[in-house]
């Protein structure tokens, strides 16, 4: 067995800042923050799932804990940015309808993100409900301008 190999570097989550775009509406910026972070955490979950499946395929009982931790870090970061996005949306004083749709979007987004795991593929129903809610907010935003 070859033992002089350098230990593999642990995978860690690297946050990526989402920039607000002044040329877009507060509702668009709100959903963009949520969408970006859902996509980022989805990547972490998918890569962890692939690695976990490969390990199980080789008969290993190991779990890629670094991928699981990266996903947990991503989810925590996503919720932090989501809370900041809520505060910015409230400061923008959007319409009542937009605020209600934003609440619905956030609730479905949080279920979707919380359901991400490295040991199972994504929850298709949560993803569909989240996407439907996101599109409803964007449609309301488009027609209210």
In short:
The protein has helices at residues 26-57, 65-91, 96-114, 124-143. With 145 residues, the protein is mostly helical. The N and C termini lie far apart (67 Å).
Any idea how many domains?
1
Radius of gyration: 18 Å
Helix share bin:
55-70%
Pattern of helices and strands: HHHH
| Rough outline | elongated
Report the sheet-strand fraction: under 5%
Outline the low-pLDDT stretches: none
Main β-sheet description: none
Total number of strands: 0
Average pLDDT works out at 90
Given the helix and strand composition, which structural class is it? mainly alpha
Q: Helix segment count?
A: 4
Distance between the termini: 67 Å
Record the SSE blueprint.
Blueprint: H1 26-57, H2 65-91, H3 96-114, H4 124-143
Structural commentary:
The protein is mainly α. It contains four helices and no strands. The mean pLDDT is 90.
Which terms summarize this structure?
145 residues, mainly alpha, elongated
């Amino acid at each position: 067995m070859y033992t002089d190999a350098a230990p593999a570097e642990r995978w860690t989550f690297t946050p990526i800042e989402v920039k607000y775009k002044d040329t877009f509406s507060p509702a668009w910026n709100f959903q963009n923050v949520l969408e970006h972070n859902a996509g980022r955490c989805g990547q972490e979950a998918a890569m962890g799932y692939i690695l976990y499946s490969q390990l199980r395929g080789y008969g290993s009982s190991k779990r890629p804990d670094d991928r699981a931790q990266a996903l947990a870090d991503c989810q925590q970061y996503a919720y932090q940015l989501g809370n900041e996005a809520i505060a910015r949306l409230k400061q923008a004083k959007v319409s009542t309808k937009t605020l209600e749709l934003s609440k619905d979007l956030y609730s479905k987004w949080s279920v979707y993100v919380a359901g991400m795991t490295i040991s199972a593929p994504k929850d298709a129903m949560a993803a569909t409900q989240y996407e439907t809610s996101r599109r409803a907010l964007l449609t309301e935003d488009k027609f209210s301008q």
